[in-house]
UniProtKB/TrEMBL annotation, chain A:
<dbReference type="GO" id="GO:0016020">
    <property type="term" value="C:membrane"/>
</dbReference>
<dbReference type="GO" id="GO:0035435">
    <property type="term" value="P:phosphate ion transmembrane transport"/>
</dbReference>
<feature type="transmembrane region" description="Helical">
    <location>
        <begin position="191"/>
        <end position="210"/>
    </location>
</feature>
<feature type="transmembrane region" description="Helical">
    <location>
        <begin position="230"/>
        <end position="247"/>
    </location>
</feature>
<keyword id="KW-0813">Transport</keyword>
<keyword id="KW-0472">Membrane</keyword>
<protein>
    <recommendedName>
        <fullName>Phosphate transporter</fullName>
    </recommendedName>
</protein>
<keyword id="KW-0812">Transmembrane</keyword>
<keyword id="KW-0592">Phosphate transport</keyword>
From TrEMBL, chain B:
<comment type="similarity">
    <text>Belongs to the universal stress protein A family.</text>
</comment>
<dbReference type="Pfam" id="PF00582">
    <property type="entry name" value="Usp"/>
</dbReference>
<feature type="domain" description="UspA">
    <location>
        <begin position="1"/>
        <end position="142"/>
    </location>
</feature>
<dbReference type="InterPro" id="IPR014729">
    <property type="entry name" value="Rossmann-like_a/b/a_fold"/>
</dbReference>
<dbReference type="InterPro" id="IPR006016">
    <property type="entry name" value="UspA"/>
</dbReference>
<protein>
    <recommendedName>
        <fullName>UspA domain-containing protein</fullName>
    </recommendedName>
</protein>
<dbReference type="InterPro" id="IPR006015">
    <property type="entry name" value="Universal_stress_UspA"/>
</dbReference>
């Protein structure tokens, strides 16, 4: 009986991991793949490795919270399997209806529903998690806002990310030791720019592992008949990897296309901010959705930029045409004839009001969309464990 | 007889039919097509991407161009000319906000990819919202 249960659990865990792999690979590697810096297969390979690293290290703290922190009793295998089904249900809803469902929050919701039904909810932990969930979107939004308003415009003037034709590096095999040299059009700046993009992709993959591996792995690590944490992490990683190599080909385009609306440089800021938020919270054992951290940073950057008054000076200088596109990845040379306008200048008459893109009501409505998934999972799990008490 | 007609258009087939209806049934009216860009989406990519452009106005116009091209094609077939307006952000709010400059709004009953819940939640049914809130008559094409 326990074996059958475990088998069902592993299948459910693979389903969850597979889908997580699809969505988080899209988020982490959509921009680099879209920019033609890495191919999808390389992205999936790097994704798998760094997800594993994140899950194996920082992810353990989150696993502890999920399997033993939210509820006062240990999460049993049967309850874990049921929880996995609720996570799967959330993912299914996300796939069918195209609504974003933050997996980590759905997981906590399902386990909390279990705790409520069996009267074993650890209110102190849940309150702590909830308070981080309330604060984090604001933090992401605020950091994004600062980047969008003050940092991005300045950096954007000095830095161009551009991919030149031809391979980045070519290997010379004439000597005794194969020696890599630059491709035909490669410059130092392109090389360093590509490196930055790759490093940030890996960093985001790491944070995806830290926050998402536990969702698929923790429910399997329950008491009698459960698997060892290390085994659960491996199963989850493999499933995420398979998702990364298969369905992520599509999500890198769909999610990636959402993200590729944003200039690559801005996407890099988003990736760095979201990964840092996610990694730090995972470090202290707080389950947090990488996707949520990402969207809040995007909204923040967009809002910060949209509400930045355009000064007359900028309105004039921006008509002098595009800055010279320097071939090479990130060029740290100032580009003449285009300067960042100080904040608070007079706003010229403009037909398009950029503030309409991110008005407060729209942002609140947008945020509320992210609360629906986890709330439903809590209610469903509560009902389930209440009426079928044998499972927990 | 309505002389100034506003036709909101997205990428949907029905939006094209709304324009056809407006042109065919109001043969001497001034028809203005409005297309809204930077519409809320699941990751807000469209809106943020637009916001990050150096020249938002220019970028918005560029993004609206395919829709306008389609509208002009429909108008050309009927030897008519149309005006175009670009809006940003929320479609219904944009349309209702400009309604007072027109006599009638003609729009499709539903927009593109109506099956997506995100869009339905964030953007809503534009035709429904516009018909409820606009201060002028609204014709909904089905």
């Amino acid at each position: 009986m326990v074996e059958v249960l475990l088998a069902i659990g592993i299948i459910a865990s693979i389903f969850v991991g597979f889908n997580i792999g699809g969505s988080s690979t899209g988020i982490a590697w959509g921009p680099p793949v879209g920019a033609g810096i890495v191919i999808k297969t390389t992205a999936a390979g790097l994704m798998t490795f760094f997800v594993f690293l994140g899950g194996w290290t920082v992810g353990r703290n989150v696993m502890d919270t999920l399997s033993g922190g939210i509820i006062t009793t240990e999460l049993t295998l049967s309850a874990g399997v049921a929880v996995l089904f609720f996570i799967g249900l959330g993912i299914l809803a996300a796939n069918i209806f195209g609504v974003p469902v933050p997996t980590s929050m759905t997981t906590v919701g399902a386990i909390a529903g279990l705790g409520l039904a069996t009267d074993s909810l650890n209110y102190a932990t849940v309150t702590e998690i909830l308070s981080y969930w309330i604060v984090t979107p604001f933090v992401g939004f605020w950091i994004g806002g600062i980047i969008g308003r003050y940092i991005y415009p300045k950096v954007n003037q000095r830095v161009q990310i551009e991919k030149s034709d031809g391979p980045l590096l070519t290997i010379h095999r004439t000597g005794a030791v194969p020696k890599p040299t630059f491709g035909p059009n490669t410059t130092w700046s392109e090389l360093s720019g590509t490196a930055v993009v790759l490093i940030l992709g890996c960093y985001m993959a790491f944070s995806a592992g830290a926050s998402n591996v536990p969702n698929a792995a923790a429910p399997l690590v329950g008491g009698v008949g459960g698997v060892k944490p290390n085994v659960a992490i491996l199963i989850a990683t493999l499933a995420i990897g398979v998702g990364g190599f298969t369905i992520a080909r599509r999500t890198m385009e769909s999610v990636g296309s959402e993200l590729s609306n944003i200039p690559l440089l801005a996407a890099l800021f988003v990736m760095f901010t979201a990964s840092t938020i996610t990694t730090l919270l995972s470090w202290i054992g707080i389950p947090i959705s990488l996707v949520l951290a990402t969207v809040m940073t995007i909204v923040g950057i967009g809002w910060g930029r949209a509400t930045r008054p355009v000064t007359v000076r900028e309105a004039i200088t921006r008509d002098t045409g595009d800055p010279t596109i320097v071939s090479g990845a990130i060029t740290a040379e100032g580009i003449e004839g285009k300067s960042a306008a100080p904040i608070g200048g007079d706003e010229p008459e403009e037909m398009v009001d950029a503030g309409d893109l991110f008005n407060p009501r729209a942002i609140i409505k947008y945020l509320s969309m992210w609360i629906i998934g986890p709330s439903i999972s809590t209610i469903l799990a509560y009902g389930f464990f209440l009426f079928i008490p044998g499972v927990a | 007889m309505a002389s100034r007609i506003l036709v909101p258009m997205d990428d949907s087939k029905l939006a094209g039919q709304a324009l056809e209806y407006a042109l065919d049934n109001f043969s001497d009216a001034d028809v203005t097509v409005i297309h809204v860009v930077g519409v809320p989406s699941s990751l807000m990519g469209e809106a943020a991407g637009l916001a990050l452009e150096d020249n938002i106005e220019e970028a918005a116009a560029e993004r609206a161009e395919p829709a306008f091209e389609r509208a002009r094609e429909i108008a050309n077939e009927r030897d008519r000319e149309i005006d175009t307006i670009v809006g940003v952000g929320h479609p219904a709010r944009n349309i209702v906000g400009r309604a007072e400059n027109y006599d009638t709004i003609v729009l499709g009953a539903h927009g593109a990819d109506r099956s997506r819940m995100v869009r339905r939640f964030l953007v809503g049914n534009v035709a429904e919202t516009v018909s409820k809130r606009a201060p002028i008559p609204v014709i909904i094409v089905r």
